[in-house]
Amino acid sequence: MATNITWHPSLSHSERTTLLHQPGLTIWLTGLSASGKSTIATALEQHLLHNSYTAYRLDGDNIRFGLNKDLTFSPQDRVENIRRIGEVAKLFADSATVAITSFISPYKADRDLARKLHDDAGLLFVEVHVDVPIDVAEARDPKGLYKKAREGIIKDFTGISAGAPYERPENPEVYIDTSKSSVEEGVQIIVDYLVKRGVLTFPKVSS
Ligand SMILES: Nc1ncnc2c1ncn2[C@@H]1O[C@H](COP(=O)(O)OP(=O)(O)OP(=O)(O)O)[C@@H](O)[C@H]1O
Ligand SMILES: [Mg+2]
């Protein structure tokens, strides 16, 4: 019989983070299409991984290819989309991973639900408003979605269609205006916040 194995009925989140020397939290990026959520999320994920932090990005488009491929863009399915992302991010955060989500998530109620899931589990939830003036977003239009929305090919496009408003976060932990900050500066703003809160150190302390 193995003698060096310690049985623990259920590791708590804090025990897990202590053992792994690794924080678990969710960084929730919200903002208009083309505001820069995926771009900043990718750069942030790489920055954390290069500094030995375990991080994983949950991105709008990618998740809709898999976990949420059964969902449409109807109002009910949009709510369900964000609810599932909130639950999955919570699992990653609980496992001591830095979960980074990049979804438009236009409705305050949906974001608040994701926050509550984390709060109830004692997990840190950091809402990041990736803001940009809509005319700048529309000029970027990397996926050609604004053009399609203007042509009426896409209905209910956030920020463009009357029935699809973007509800701005009232009190996000972090605010970035990507018409004023570069991608690198956007990442730095998030990292600075987490360092100030004592969540991250550079270099990482791993013993
Ligand atoms: N400061 C900046 N921060 C982030 N992206 C920027 C910035 N300046 C220019 N960009 C460009 O803006 C575009 C943002 O596209 P991105 O796919 O990241 O947006 P998104 O918010 O994820 O949109 P969607 O909701 O449609 O997925 C990219 O082409 C990126 O290169
Ligand atoms: Mg994106």
Describe this structure in words.
The protein is of the alpha/beta class and 207 residues long. The protein has one domain (23-196): Rossmann fold (3-Layer(aba) Sandwich). Helix content is 43%, strand content 14%. It has helices at residues 13-20, 37-50, 60-65, 75-94, 108-120, 134-140, 145-150, 183-196; strands at 25-30, 55-59, 98-102, 124-131, 174-177. A five-stranded parallel sheet has the order 2-3-1-4-5, sandwiched between helices. It binds adenosine-5'-triphosphate (ATP) and magnesium ion. Residues 31, 33-40, 60, 102, 104, 140, 142-143, 178, 181-183, 186 line the site of adenosine-5'-triphosphate. Residues 31, 33-40, 60, 102, 104, 140, 142-143, 178, 181-183, 186 line the site of adenosine-5'-triphosphate (ATP).
What's a quick, concise take on this entry?
Pathway: Sulfur metabolism; hydrogen sulfide biosynthesis; sulfite from sulfate: step 2/3. With 207 residues, the protein is α/β, with parallel strands linked by helices.
* Beta-strand content bin: 5-15%
Specify the CATH homologous superfamily.
P-loop containing nucleotide triphosphate hydrolases
| Overall body shape | globular
For the record, the CATH class is Alpha Beta
**C-alpha end-to-end distance:** 29 Å
Largest sheet: 5 strands, parallel
- Which ligands are bound? adenosine-5'-triphosphate, magnesium ion
What integer value in Å does the Rg equal?
18 Å
Assembly state (oligomeric):
single chain
CATH topology tier name: Rossmann fold
Report low-confidence residues grouped into runs of 5 or more: none
Strand adjacency order, main sheet = 2-3-1-4-5
**Tally of separate helices:** 8
Order of helices and strands: HEHEHHEHEHHEH
**Would you count the extended β strands for me?**
5
How many domains is the backbone divided into? Answer: 1
Q: What CATH architecture would you give?
A: 3-Layer(aba) Sandwich
What is the helix content?
A: 40-55%
Structural class: alpha/beta
